Amino acid sequence: MGIATGPPVTIQSVTRTSPGTTGTVPSGTMPPGANLPIRLTLTQVSAPSAASPLLQVSGSVLVQGTDRVTGLGIALDVGSAVRSRDDLGRLSQGERVPTVQYRNLAGGLLDSAGTMLGSPFRAEADVSRYVPPTGVAVHPVQIRVVGRVNGRAEDTVATATTFMVLSAPRVTARTQVLTVVPLASPPRLRSDGLLTDDGLRAEIAEGGGLRELLEAVYATAAILPSGPPTVALGVDPTLVQALLLMQEDYSFAAPEGPKAGRADPEAGAFLDMIKQYADLGGTVFALPYGDVDLPSLVHADQLDALQYSVNTGQTVIAELLGVDPQRIRDIAFPADGIVDAPTVNVLSANGAGTVIVDDELLPAARSVTHTPSAGVTLATDTGQIHALAADHRLADLVTGYEGSEADRGVALARFRAELAMITFERLRASRSASGSVVLALPRDASRIPQGWLAEILRTIESPYSTAIGIQAVTDPALDGTRQRAGLTYPEALRERELPVDYVDGVGEVRDKVQTLASLFCPATPAAPAAPLACQQTERLKNTLITGLSAAWRTDRPAGVSLVQQADGEATGFRDGVRVVGSQMVNLTSSRGRVPVTLENSTPWDVTVVLKIVSSDRGRLISAPEVARRLIAGQKDQIEIEVDAESAGTFPIDIRLETADGRTLGPEAAARVLVRSTVYGAIATTITVGAIGVLMVAVVVRQLRRLRAWSRQRALAGGAGSPDHPDPSRPDAGRPGPSRAGSEWADQATLPLRGNPSGAPERDPYPPGLDRFPHHPGDPDHGPTVPWGPDRPAAPAGSGPRPRRRDGR
After folding, report:
1. Core-most of 102, 302, 344, 511, by most CB within 10 Å?
2. What per-residue string of b and e applies to 670-691 under the rule 16 or more CB within 10 Å gives b?
């Protein structure tokens, strides 16, 4: 026989009548206007033993109202065994417990004046007959305060409900529990090297929330000395970077301006404890950098941001642990297990082999009446991936405890009952069935009370449950794929995501920073990078990734503030590299230079490429690009050579780009109007060609006229006669036939037209002589008649005829 209650606990009601009070007054049983704030506190539950088979409950009752209360007593009700986890939930909300055992104890609660003293009470019930021979059973226990108010009939005036777990000495199959604890805090890193606030110092100090979580996880190494620690520890990379910063003097933002923070030795001790837990064999994996809202990035098609977050997070944690990032890339834990099928597909493609998912997204199949095993196999485009269904009820029970000592026992008993019911349901389905369950705490787990997680982790080791590591959950023997209906994603979760327009807006700023990275930290050997500039662009990238954190789902202004700060700094750096040019440049010749000034007001040297684009490349020609190295804080004037092919005004656009072709902002662009007042080479060529053609035509015409004139001269002056031999002829000077008295000789001496003697004008050309020697063969002038001795004799009667003065 055994009862699983652990050490003495405090049990208190889960319902209240007013703030600061405990108990429930059933509706309709109290008179109108009754004032009965009654505090019912359960301080201890003692387990039955071989010496005593009794369940003993201790507590106190305190009446603080003004109504007269008499005949008070305590009733202890033990209900029948709970049959399901759903029934367990209803009973925990105050549903009336069917009475199995009743014991009324009225003595020792009132003083002589009838006033409640609030002294402790003790109630007991024999529960030995309810201990199961095998397996486990959960019974509700309800404590009721009964009495009379203002002389009315006796009734229940307050109740408190808790649970007891009864188990056989040996349970055939215990539920195997994997606990996943995230060490996370809202992102605090700004791109200027400051922290957003100094709140992290308190969280890692003794008694702080993050310190409590880590110490509780670290203590599990002593629970199972025969094996490695079983708790899987997810670490936020931005938390690690913030703690590294706090190891030395640091600064944080404040409304009145940056404030200095002293180096915190607890920061280094915290990081050392993480490394020591990994050295002991505990599982340490990386959360996404900035704990980004993974589904919203997938739905906004920002897969590069998702990949950057996952890979950067793994790199940061691997550097902390001194291991290869490949060793810690297998586990993915989206914020609170919220993930859909496309996101799982992307995570699988990025190398994840196990993803932790909220079990509400992996519901049990309709035919399954018990809690399915946590391990599920999902198919993706890149192969299969293990999904671990994180039990949301267990997580709610752990985080629902607010820290009151009076509530601690009730909360712990409720957690035990939940674990026992999981085992009970599986044993009922199959006596030999064993399964796994995952307790994955939410990201804000650091707010849970001091010492609470340590108590929860100790409670897991019981006759009906045991702790296991994450590798064991993926064992095929614990696979629950057939027991679950598949991965779902309700529309309500889609509405909780970061809006797409917000994600896109952050993406635009990220593009700006990527351009800065190309400017300050290029990948080309021709443009050396500045190490400090690379660090600065890296901080900008990381800060913008944290602007996509799932933490901003409920605190959007904090995320917007981070993004705006990074955007302002990135804009300042980008606009620090600019080009300035004159609005108008005049060219005095076909070739000239356009002067522009390059400015670099950033703290680092940069290499830029000037892109020169003309809207009319046919009439204005220049080099398409010019590379320049700009010294930090200096200006550089350069001259761009241009060739104008014609007169006119031509705009040229000058913009600055990075070495890999990324365009800088609007300040890195200028438009210059180039005015040319001279002809270009093409126009000059055309003009010279036209003039040349004209000159050739004139020369040809003059030559023809000179030839005609020479012939006239020869005829008029006897050129070619024996007396005046033509020196150009081969027979010049040789004697020839006499032409004296011949018709030719007469014609040679005829006077020209306009002879003052009044004699008839004679045609100076011999009959048949071509009058237009420069038009040989012209049909308008007849056939060409040979000149010289070969000329045929003129027909009889064809002598020269007189010509009129009008030429006819």
Report:
1. 344
2. bebebebeebbeeeeeeeeeee
Which of 471, 495, 519 marks a domain boundary?
Answer: 495
Give me the phi and psi of 349, to 5 degrees please.
-65, -25
Residue 790 lies in a domain: no
Q: Does position 760 have pLDDT exceeding 90, yes or no?
A: no
* 225/138 same-domain check: no
Mean pLDDT of the chain: 79
Cβ–Cβ under 8 Å, residues 414 and 11: no
Domain count of the fold of the chain: 3
Per-residue pLDDT of 430-456, as tens digits, reads 766 678 999 999 999 999 999 999 999
Q: CATH number, domain at 94?
A: 2.60.40.1940
Report the pLDDT value the prediction gives residue 15, as an integer from 0 to 100.
30
Chain CA centroid to CA 657, Å: 23
pTM over 0.85: no
Residues of the domain holding 616:
582-676
User: What is the three-class DSSP state of 342?
Assistant: helix
Task: Work out the number of other CB atoms within 10 angstroms of the CB of residue 31.
Answer: 10
In order, the DSSP letters of 21-84 are ------TTSS-TT----EEEEEEEEEPP-SS--EEEEEEEEEE-SSS-EEEEEEEEEEPPPP-S
Least Cα distance to 236 among 179, 317, 303 occurs for: 317
Tens-place pLDDT, residues 31-60: 334 445 677 877 777 666 556 777 878 787
Q: Report if residue 537 sits inside a domain.
A: no
Number of H helices, E strands in the chain: 18, 29
